[in-house]
Amino acid sequence: MFHSFPVRRVFAVLILFLACLGVLKARGSSGDSTNGWGFSTANLDRSCKPCDDFYEFAMGGWMKNNPIPPEFPSWGSFTILADRNQSSMRGILEASMKANAPSGSNQQKIADFYASCMDTTAIDASAIKPIAADLSAIDKLKESGELQPLISRLQQTGSGYLFNFDSTQDLDDSTQVIAEVEQGGLGLPERDYYTRADDQSKQLRADYVAHIAKMFAIAGDSPEKADAEARTAMNFETTLANASMPRAQMRDPHAVWHKMTLPQLQGLAPAFPWEAYFRERNAPQFSAINVAQPDFFKEANRLLTEAPVDQWKSYLRWHVIHASANELSHAFVEENFNFYGAKLSGSKELQPRWKRCVQSVNRNLGEALGQVYVEKYFPSEAKAHAREMVLNLIAALKSDIPVLTWMGPETKKEALGKLQAFQIKIGYPDKWRDYSALSVERSGYLANVQRSISFEHARDLHKIGKLVDRTEWGMTPPTVNAYYNSTMNEIVFPAGILQPPFFDPKADDAINYGGMGAGIGHEITHGFDDEGSQFDGKGNLRDWWTKEDRKNFDQRAACVQQQFDGYEVEPGLHENGKLVLGESIADLGGLAISYAAYEESIAAKRPPSLDGFTPEQRFFLGWAQVWGANLRPEYARLMANSNPHPISRFRVNGPLSNTELFARAFGCKKGDAMVRENACKIW
């Protein structure tokens, strides 16, 4: 789902992208070219008129004939491609296990990491032992003054313990890396899960408490103790949640940018010995740090001074178990799935072990695995092909900006300068990550994961005080995803997504422009959405707009926000227009840019109709094909509550209902559902 990479790292999200080069052979998908032009008419639901519900018209047949496999919360083009990539990576890993690679080599490390994950006999036999030392250290806590060393220790090999500490780009000077602390410590997806008053949210919280209690029981606690500790942990998290910043608010970079000196941080949260903490985390010396959510740290300070030690012990014991659940014995894995996979996302079955292990290798050793992946599946010449397509879409926006009627010449000059400064990354990094300092063994799965986390923490913190490395990637090459990063002013397309069905060299150009082209345009537009537009071409948080032009932009953005606020995911649950605003602006702009580029490409010779569809109609079918998916109700609810992307139906119909060119292509008229009375238009 075309993605704007956040200004700072947050959590791994279920976001997939577009595009590609046609360098791999398609192996069956929602976009199989059974009609020879890249879109199967079997996908259609002709009982629905395109002007009533284009998503249903274009993909209703496919959705009817492609139920969700039991191990997935959703099923569509993105998940199908991601699932294929899992098989490709599995082949690499299984071959590596048989290769007897030299000790210390990347091949040895990915093979042994995968082997340790697949060794369920040893993992099940170890039961609770891999986390016994951490649990014992928590049990020995006697006073709050002992919390800081313990939190430092736990954060070395995990996350979720009260807050997060990492590096980030200085938003005032994007050439520099500074330290940052952020809110954290929750087990539910985000703060509003703890505060919503509807019946479903209340039930989910009750299920969460029951889940915590079951995990404590598996760890060896009596039923009475497990229930009491679960309630204590939940109350503790609820206190943290009430002090946390909502996810939609965090999309405003000014809201999460509070640069302080170390004495100022110590004054904000005096109960926590910060200098000792940074020393124990092996952070370089620094004088400035961003405190992303000051109110959260004020509340954390209150808990450090007022919360009884026994409450801290229950909370920390829960998060040690929670952080390692998927690396422990089957009982932990199964119960973890019962809540997060089944109740929260709607999946019916746990994914096969090999898939979970492939994901773990990619998550922890992604560039080591990625080097082999691109050698096998992504020829070097593919970079040039992809770059050419990106440049074509940039040129389309470059032609659009000068003719905008709502933007003045001063702001247009700045916008064109930013567009010119875009950095483009295709396929894989030019400089690979060095894993030589990371030790991986064939036994001890959790130990391998924890060493990998510790290695990544050290690598990240080592950047503090140094110049930004603009060659670095925020995703691994096999990842089915893409992103725009505001502070780097870059668009990034990993090799994992650069393949059919999003681009098929045998398909009609209209399908490719509607799919890949609109996706590239989406990423480019992120540089000018409500968040990206606050950063200049160098990646600095700087207001480069005139007051009048910013007012005009905000009015147009408000139109999009109000539109998505009106979309109902299920009775009583609407999309959060503020949360999905950036992605929705990018969809709207990406379609406009790609359509202009396509029209330019066929100006000299107009293609004929195919299966009764004009070239323009096929362009929009290409867009719908990208998003065709079935979603379980639980997953749709999770998306609406916590994800910055709208669900697939609204990603298709939302921007198209604002698009006059779509209405013209399908003969839609005023009053039709796919023609908004007050259409939103920005780029």
Short description:
The protein has 683 residues and is of the alpha/beta class.
Give an overview of the whole structure:
- This protein is α/β, with parallel strands linked by helices and 683 residues long.
- Helix content is 50%, strand content 8%.
- The chain is built from 24 helices and twelve strands.
- α3 packs antiparallel against α14, α7 packs across α8 and α8 packs across α12.
- The chain is globular, with a radius of gyration of 25 Å.
- About 4% of the residues have low confidence.
Secondary structure layout:
Blueprint lengths: L3 E2 L48 H12 L8 E3 H21 L8 H13 L1 H7 L5 H8 L7 H10 L6 E8 L2 E11 L15 H20 L4 H20 L16 E3 H7 L5 H7 L7 E4 L2 H13 L2 H16 L5 H14 L9 H25 L3 H20 L8 H12 L2 E5 L17 H17 L21 E3 L4 E5 L14 H18 L20 H19 L2 E3 L2 E2 L6 H21 L13 H13 L1 E3 L1 H10 L5 H9 L3 H7 L17
Parallel strand pairs: 1-8, 4-6, 7-9
Antiparallel strand pairs: 2-12, 3-4, 5-6, 8-9, 10-11
